Amino acid sequence: MNTTFLQSLKINKQFLLLSIPLFLLAGLVYLIHSPYFLSQSESFIMAISVDFVITIPIIYFLVIRKTKIPNFTAITLMIIGLFLGLYVLPQDNQIYLQGFKEYFFPFVELGILSIVIWKVRTAIKKYKSIAAESSKTTSFDFFTVLKNSCEEILPKLPASLLATEVAVIYYSIINWKKTEIHPAKEFTYHKNSGTVGLLGALVFIIAVETIALHLLLAEWNLVVAWVLTILSIYTGFQIMAFAKSFSKRPILIENDTLYLRYGIMSETEIKIENIVSIETSEKPLEELIETEVAGDKEKRKLYQKLSPLSELEAHNVVIRLNKKAKIKGVYGMNKEAKTLALFVDKKQDFVEAIQNQIR
Fold first, then answer.
1. For the chain, how far is it from start to end, CA to CA, in angstroms?
2. CA-CA distance, 309 to 323, in Å (whole number)?
3. How far is CA 304 from CA 227, 268, 275, 276, 319, in A?
4. d(CA 276, CA 43)
5. What's phi and psi for 333, nearest 5 deg?
6. What confidence tens digit (pLDDT) does each residue in 238-269 have?
7. How many angstroms separate the CA atoms of 266 and 335, rounded?
């Protein structure tokens, strides 16, 4: 009872601290829409603009600096204040916020990226140190470290977007080292599925079409031609990163948990104790649904494939759970499943490994 009460007090205290900046921002919004708003006073507009992006974040930082709330969330509040101010202030009164956005905000973005890189490097060093001192082999995953580092600085959705963009650069350009697989607990899913070949062919088609489209559009509008070319090149790098991440992020069984991964495109964590059954099966997912739940729309939604490519990729393993699992997708897109279909290269070994864990 005492523990529950203390936890409740802790949660209420954090809520109170977080409500302070929200209350201050709401006060500014109210002031802007009130009769007391002086749109012609330059000093008044400057004061409000400074409050949005500097004063309130500083007050918030001073309030939370001795708590467990990450200090970096003050940067998030600064960004929220900037865009809220640009939304509520009349267009003619945005000169200071626009100046902040144009000249200072790029340094904020660079600072966030630098902090993420520093945190990732620190986490990697810590992992290597623990691995060197411990007799146990602990699996390291760059993308997991990257997401955790981003979530310490930004809210979940922006953190997911930033982590995905950094991962695209990392896997498509930087990481070319072969990943060592531990056969007892790690399982690949890209060697026999044909998906890597499909994505590779897609990159080739994009490359050919980009050149042809650029030459065609350049005769009409050079700026449009280059914009579409850059977007196409970036799309090619995205697809390349997705394909390369398959081999870098194998499915993992560790610490009584099954880490199901499909590159950086989707993933989920399942406690072994939550697995009701696992079997090798290539039966179409729609056929499984019709056999087991028929017209129950809610239950139909809980039959999912791990791969976001859906029917473009076959599956050979079906896992049934006693609790819903959240499948985290690319750019923060999530879905839930209780019956999960996926492809594994060594399906029989994988099924036996899970069954042994269950026993």
1. 36
2. 24
3. 36, 12, 15, 16, 10
4. 66
5. -85, 125
6. 888 898 999 899 999 988 889 999 988 999 99
7. 10
CB within 8 Å of 259: residues ≥ 6 apart: 251, 252, 253, 267, 269
6: pLDDT strictly greater than 60: no
> Running DSSP on this structure, what letter comes out for residue 327?
E
- Which two three-digit tokens encode residue 115? 């902090």
Tokens found for residue 208? 């050919």
> DSSP characters for 258-298?
EEEEETBTEEEEEEGGGEEEEEE----HHHHHHHHTTT-HH
Q: Is 182 helix (H, G, I), strand (E, B) or coil?
A: coil
138 by DSSP, 3-state: which?
coil
Supply 93's token pair.
């009164």
Residues 340, 320: Cα–Cα separation, whole Å: 6
C-alpha to C-alpha distance for 25 and 77, rounded to whole angstroms: 10
Write the pLDDT tens digit of every residue in 53-78: 888 888 888 887 777 677 777 877 88
Give the three-state DSSP class for 153: coil
- Given a cut of 60, is residue 137 above it in pLDDT? no
Which residues, 6 or more positions from 253, have their beta carbon under 8 angstroms from its beta carbon?
A: 185, 186, 187, 259, 272, 353, 354, 357
> Distance between CA 55 and CA 69 in Å, rounded?
19
